[in-house]
Amino acid sequence: MRKYIGQAMRRIIGTAQATIDTIEPGSIMVSPRKPIDFEDEAAITEILDLSTKIGAVLLDSGTAAIDTQEQIRFVAGVYGLENVEVDVTYNKIMVLARRGNNLPPVSTMRQVYYRSMDFTRLAQVDRLVRRIRDMALSPATAHRIVNEIVSAPHPYPHWVATLAWGVMASSVAVLLGGGFVVGVIALLTTMVIVVVNRFLNRIGTPMFFQQVSGGFIAVVPAALMFAAAPTLGIDFVPSQIIASGMVVLLAGLSLVGSVEDAITGAPITGVARFFELLLMTGGIIAGVSMAIRLLETVGIYLPTVTATTDFGFVDAPARVIAGGVAAATFALASYAELRALPVAWAAGAIGIAVVVVANQLTAGAIIASSIAATGTGLFGGLLARRALTPPLVVAVAGITPLLPGLAVYTGLYGILNDQSLVGFTSLASAFAIGCALAAGVTLGEFVARALRRPHIPHRPDWNLRPAWMQRTKHE
């Protein structure tokens, strides 16, 4: 029986490990080549430059600062530079290699610029680190590979990503209780947001104003359709469309990375990322509020938001499926590899299922979100090993359906309509839910790393016998 349990656990957890799981103090083994000459500054600089290039891709993709430091230190150690100091901040990486007491240290620095999120690039760099560890790649070869990864175009056309964002918004709208009409409007609205923001990004518009534009566009179609609903003979809740658009705008922000940095010992980077998160969220709120006020001047008033999302058992299957679709389409929109999509779907579905159960137990939105995020981080991290996908991809995609877009909109609507208590309470709840999601994912990933290889302790045959038989034998 114990043998079968062990086999089942290994099938679930897997024998493979995420790259970051294998990087531990004392685990670095210098590759079987000629040891590096510490007087050769050119060779040392080549290794440091390679390490910072890899770290830049990791940091830009949302990897926590501590994990980025460990992987940079690991790559340098594989090539013989074990005594290195690594400093990772919000947009800068500095690496210094010590060469003993008689030689000055060699250092390098790399600026990390914002790029569009590409999970395929992250997965390819993750595999490159594995190859450096396992195949003893030369620094020149590794440089060529990482340059090809960084300069390569996105794996899918833009229209695929645009459609994926639209399907994600439609799934979130269904998750919030919307029907077919709400889903279609949310899909079309979000595709317009993505196209407009892609154009604004192409002409160099700062990200804050792209978020303002997205928040503005998220409101206008829903409000116009609501005004025309009596004439068209349709009935829907515009807040579900607006909230789905806000979830799409919130999905690409570094929520997980900011809280994980603060928890794991990188407070400066965590504060910087969290301030960016607040600023970008403020841009969404500004765009939504501008649209609401503008529509009110022409006589279009949106209905009062009176309730939050309620996950019940009656419609739980549909919402669990919608949550999985939202997570998978977010991964697709972020250019994740095809092998990562089923894993992302499973992580999103697990998160929504946990929320359904927690709400039935009256656990509250914050506790339910934290439990769901912990489960997403845990199972997502374990499933990611089976698909050889970086756990960050699964974690970020898995919590996307749980982002508090409706709570943010409810709070903003209350503030704009002289319901300050309701408004600030909803915004505080949204803030707490966001922190609970990020902290839960961090805890789940930590537990997943602790379950690298399940070990079922083996008891000797004599210990499996009843106590009276042991006494008889000894007597």
UniProtKB/TrEMBL annotation:
| Domain named Threonine/serine exporter-like N-terminal: residues | 50-294
Q: Which Pfam families match?
A: ThrE (PF06738), ThrE_2 (PF12821)
- Coarse class of the primary localization is membrane
Q: Which UniProt keywords apply?
A: Cell membrane, Membrane, Transmembrane, Transmembrane helix
Q: Which domain of life is it from?
A: Bacteria
Question: Which family, according to the similarity comment?
Answer: Belongs to the ThrE exporter (TC 2.A.79) family.
Parts of the chain that traverse the membrane: 163-196, 208-229, 241-259, 271-292, 312-333, 340-358, 364-384, 391-415, 421-443
Concerning InterPro entries, the annotation shows: ThrE-like_N, ThrE_2, ThrE_Dicarb/AminoAcid_Exp
BP terms from Gene Ontology: succinate transport
Name this polypeptide is given = Threonine/serine exporter family protein
